[in-house]
Amino acid sequence: MNRDVEKVLKKLEYGVYIVTMGRGQTGNAFTASWLTQVSSEPPLIALAVKNKHQSSRLITESGVFAVNLISEGQKEFAKTFYGPAESGYKKLDGITLTDTPTTGSPVLNGAAGYLDCKVINRLEVGNHILFIAEVVAAAINSDKNILTSTNSGLHYAG
Ligand SMILES: Cc1cc2nc3c(=O)[nH]c(=O)nc-3n(C[C@H](O)[C@H](O)[C@H](O)COP(=O)(O)O)c2cc1C
To answer: Is 54 in the pocket of ligand 1 (CB under 6 A)?
Structure first.
């Protein structure tokens, strides 16, 4: 990537979320920032997942995922989930989860809230897969500010 393009792209502000998928402890989770709302009626979000990540395959297979909101003070919690894709270790081992009533995706009990999402479209965009998903249910249990690229210093460059 051109250095100027890289430098300016790094200035963009994002939320820092944890996306969960699959079934219970056998599912997976990863720290995600390239995520935004793209429609209000119906409520749709777009999430970019690197094509090499096991998460892009798992979301493609199940067609559902959850976006866990993380509070400003939970930076270390967010870090738990961006382990190397190649390691194959189970990131959800020892993590307390609850399945959402709507899609059954696992959500993190320690999260500030979640969006429960059903994929309606999948596009291959460069080295990422863009999932467009309908938010079919949601819950919030904290009014703290969420973790962002600015307040955490965590940036994703792809
Ligand atoms: C702050 C932050 C944000 C991230 N955002 C994304 C993202 O939006 N999409 C993505 O594919 N990877 C993102 N990552 C990288 C993944 O979390 C990381 O590669 C993870 O190991 C992927 O999980 P998996 O290999 O189990 O699928 C981000 C990492 C960090 C630290």
So the answer is: yes
pTM beyond 0.90, yes or no: yes
Return the ligand 1 atom nearest residue 34 CA.
8
SS3 75: helix
Task: Locate the domains of the chain by residue range.
Answer: 3-152
- From the list 101, 81, 103, 102, the residue with the least C-alpha distance to 28 is 81
- Asked if the peptide bond before residue 106 counts as cis, ω within 30 degrees of 0, the response is no
21 neighbors 59 (Cβ within 8 angstroms):
yes
Residues 123-137 have pLDDT tens digits of 999 999 999 999 999
Hey, whose CA ends up nearest to atom 22 of ligand 1? 30
Six-digit token pair at 131?
């999932």
**What CATH number was assigned to the domain covering residues 3-152?**
2.30.110.10
